[in-house]
Automatic annotation (TrEMBL), chain A:
<dbReference type="InterPro" id="IPR001680">
    <property type="entry name" value="WD40_rpt"/>
</dbReference>
<comment type="similarity">
    <text>Belongs to the WD repeat CIA1 family.</text>
</comment>
<protein>
    <recommendedName>
        <fullName>Probable cytosolic iron-sulfur protein assembly protein 1</fullName>
    </recommendedName>
</protein>
<comment type="function">
    <text>Essential component of the cytosolic iron-sulfur (Fe/S) protein assembly machinery. Required for the maturation of extramitochondrial Fe/S proteins.</text>
</comment>
<feature type="compositionally biased region" description="Acidic residues">
    <location>
        <begin position="193"/>
        <end position="206"/>
    </location>
</feature>
<dbReference type="InterPro" id="IPR036322">
    <property type="entry name" value="WD40_repeat_dom_sf"/>
</dbReference>
<keyword id="KW-0853">WD repeat</keyword>
<dbReference type="InterPro" id="IPR015943">
    <property type="entry name" value="WD40/YVTN_repeat-like_dom_sf"/>
</dbReference>
<dbReference type="Pfam" id="PF00400">
    <property type="entry name" value="WD40"/>
</dbReference>
Automatic annotation (TrEMBL), chain B:
<dbReference type="InterPro" id="IPR034904">
    <property type="entry name" value="FSCA_dom_sf"/>
</dbReference>
<comment type="similarity">
    <text>Belongs to the MIP18 family.</text>
</comment>
<dbReference type="InterPro" id="IPR039796">
    <property type="entry name" value="MIP18"/>
</dbReference>
<protein>
    <recommendedName>
        <fullName>MIP18 family-like domain-containing protein</fullName>
    </recommendedName>
</protein>
Length: 469, 218
């Protein structure tokens, strides 16, 4: 039963075994292609995009919580929860807000209706704290509780992905029109300030400003992801503090990943182009918690070429020597150097690992666990694969048989495959996978135990129990 | 044949809205102004229905009794059936060759845009035992002229037809045959992109064109 974390990589690749078992699917089935399921950062809720709607499921009851409908005239492809703002307790629930990206070229900002949402959230919290109670099963229809409060217009074609920066200050959207837009939430000027709880009763103003339109990709931009706010983001390995901490990664049909940063003068610039994929890059994901606290988070990318890559920022010390940056002190290119004297804003990123190849067909989604560092991937072949980082970082590929009935374990580039599940959604393609916390009655460690949730063309949203030995 | 057709759940003369489908829309009612063609593009699933599975006469009457490839499984789909050489409306096998050209009053089979030799299944029908075994269908199209601007539309129609007609364990690849089209790679990449295909099918103009092309597939 002991589910060990793998923060310290085991010495031998075969020391770890993993078991992935299906849990009952969320009800009801959606009976149509579902694109993605996004867990709320702190509440037991998960939002699934399908057709023109989003269905929110409760992670406590594993059933429908509410539905967002009527806001989009074409399919909703992606969604993002507004991150908790400022110092929060249970009150953060008051800020429940979801942004949707749709093929109808818009992004929608949705707000949960005040009155009824409290009732329902209280129930969620009761359930979350384990006070199971029959009332909770009296699921009411809740379709009117979500209100579309703002439509973000500007993209010329389908919006493919939306993502909030860690503070909630910025929202990124991307589209088939090859552009990435960055919007600033100017309705909440001090998202991180400590507000009085009384003030929180006031509704946020829905006011967003476009701060950047980034058009350097040569093809559809498939996904955007902001670097999480982890210690390493500002640590000694981070790029010199000439510009903002927020970093956005974008994945494209042009086979590249680009990284974007604000240059300190309010301009957003491309600081790196990551080339290596030989097909559409379907997505990017940041390392949620680097093993060494001060390491800069790594980045994952995956795509139509059936490959998952790990990218790392080259440490700035090296750059200093190579480029012979002038001046003494700890921060030679820091404050005091005029803009024009600064070195190029470019950052050097290198592909430091290619994961063992499992999938035969497009890889649509990969999830990187903040808790355990494990990776899970899904794609058009219907396979769910689980990977673990090993001590072997030499990049050489190993294949060896494990004892017992475990499948052959392949390791490559410092990663090994722990296990795979074939036909995880029967014959259907799997569009999305995510890690999230368990809150259902079957979990012995509610709110702590992690599970996987997959979303497929069959309209099934399925949780999976993951056991690591 | 005529007798057994009457026993079919699907009538002999299929209307467009009854084209076979792989979509799992069972019991689900789509709403909204943008879904008026959904009955064409996303009709109900058929393989779980009765036409193929419960009517062995469709197979036994026409096929060699010893042909295990055809009789062994419920879905003995081979290249010929995908192409649709032997017209048999009752068996829903008439998939590609009868799609209309978007410009001319002929079918894709008639102008050899779709050719039986350019349809490939893997693994071959004999190897497929489990209905969940993924099967790749590769269709190479030969546009009539190498700069044909409608190549993408034709490819899309072929893909839609196959997605709707084949069970969900089929993975469909529609390509322009090597050298047959000036922008092979671009067109192929587009046709292989699930997200773009999905978005294209929500475009009313494109939907209208494809609906018309598929009208002759009855």
């Amino acid at each position: 039963m002991a589910t060990e974390t793998t923060n310290t990589a085991p010495a031998a690749p075969s020391a770890t075994t993993a078991e992935i078992t299906p849990l009952p699917a969320f009800s009801p089935d959606l009976y149509q292609r579902a694109w993605a399921s996004i867990p709320h950062p702190s509440l037991p809720l998960i939002a699934t995009c399908h057709a023109h709607s989003v269905t929110v499921f409760s992670l406590s009851t594993l059933s429908k919580h509410s539905v967002l409908t009527g806001g989009h005239t074409r399919s909703v492809r992606s969604a993002a929860w507004q991150p908790p703002r400022g110092k929060v307790s249970g009150k953060e629930a008051k800020r429940l807000r979801l942004v949707t990206g749709s093929f109808d070229t818009t992004a929608g900002v949705w707000t949960w209706d005040q009155g009824r949402r409290e009732e329902r959230l209280e129930r969620e919290i009761r359930l979350q704290s384990g006070e199971d109670n029959k009332e909770a099963e009296e699921e009411e229809e809740a379709e009117d509780e979500w209100e579309l409060t703002l439509v973000l217009e500007g993209h010329e074609n389908e919006v493919k992905s939306v993502n909030y920066s860690p503070s909630g200050q910025y929202l990124a959207t991307c589209s088939r029109d090859k552009s990435v837009w960055i919007w600033e939430d100017v309705g909440n000027p001090n998202p991180s300030s400590e507000e009085e709880e009384e003030e929180e009763e006031e509704e946020d103003e829905d006011e967003w400003e476009t701060v950047a339109v980034l058009q350097e990709h040569d093809g559809d931009v498939k996904a955007v992801a902001w670097c999480p706010d982890v210690p390493g983001r500002k640590g000694k390995y981070a790029p010199p503090r000439r510009y903002g901490d927020d970093v956005l990664a974008s994945a494209s049909y042009d086979n590249t990943v680009r990284l974007w940063r604000e240059d300190g003068d309010g301009e957003w610039v491309c600081v790196a182009v990551l080339e290596g994929h030989e097909g559409t890059v379907w997505g990017v994901a940041w390392e949620g918690r680097p093993k060494e606290n001060d390491k800069y988070p790594r980045l994952l990318s995956w795509g139509a070429d059936e490959v998952i890559r790990v990218w790392s920022l080259k440490e700035p010390e090296e750059e200093e020597h190579r480029e012979g940056a002038a001046g003494g002190g700890n921060n030679p290119w820091g404050f005091g150097v005029p803009n024009t004297m600064r070195r190029s804003l470019k950052e050097e990123w290198e592909c430091t690992a290619v994961l063992p190849k499992v999938h035969k067909g497009d890889i649509y989604s990969v999830a990187w666990s903040t808790e355990t560092g494990l990776l899970a991937s899904v794609g058009s072949d219907g396979v769910l694969a689980l990977y673990q980082e090993t001590a072997n970082t030499t990049g050489k590929t190993e294949e060896n048989e494990t004892n017992g009935d475990a499948p052959m374990i392949t390791s490559a580039g410092g990663w090994e495959v722990l296990t795979t599940v074939k036909g995880a959604h029967g014959p259907y393609e799997i569009n999305h996978i995510t890690w999230c916390k368990r809150y259902d009655a079957g979990s012995e460690r509610k709110g702590e135990e992690e599970m996987l949730v997959t979303t497929g063309d069959d309209g099934v949203v399925r949780p999976w129990q993951v056991r690591i030995q | 044949m005529a007798k057994s057709d009457l026993d079919n759940a699907n009538p002999t003369v299929l209307s467009v809205s009854q084209l076979p489908s792989r979509n799992l829309a069972k019991g689900h009612v789509r709403k909204g102004p943008d879904s008026k063609y959904d009955h064409i593009l996303f009709p109900k699933q058929w393989w779980a229905g009765s036409s193929l599975n419960t009517d062995p006469s469709v197979w036994t009457s026409d096929e060699d009794e010893d042909d295990d490839l055809t009789l062994a499984t419920e879905e003995p789909i081979d290249e010929q059936e995908i192409y649709g050489e032997n017209y048999d409306p009752s068996s829903c096998t008439y998939l590609l060759s009868t799609i209309s050209d978007p410009e001319h009053p002929v079918t894709l089979g008639q102008i050899a845009v779709v050719r039986l030799d350019d349809i490939h299944l893997s693994p071959s029908p004999a190897e497929r035992l489990d209905p969940n075994t993924l099967t790749n269908v590769e269709v190479d199209l030969t546009p009539t002229v190498n700069h044909c601007s409608l190549a993408t539309v034709i490819g899309l129609a072929v893909r839609v037809r196959l997605e709707n007609a084949l069970p969900p364990n089929y993975r469909i690849v529609v390509r322009m045959k090597d050298g047959s089209h000036a922008q092979d790679d671009q067109v192929n990449k587009q046709l292989g992109d699930k997200e773009r295909v999905a978005a294209a099918l929500e475009n009313d103009t494109l939907k209208g064109i494809i609906e018309k092309m598929l009208e002759t597939c009855v």
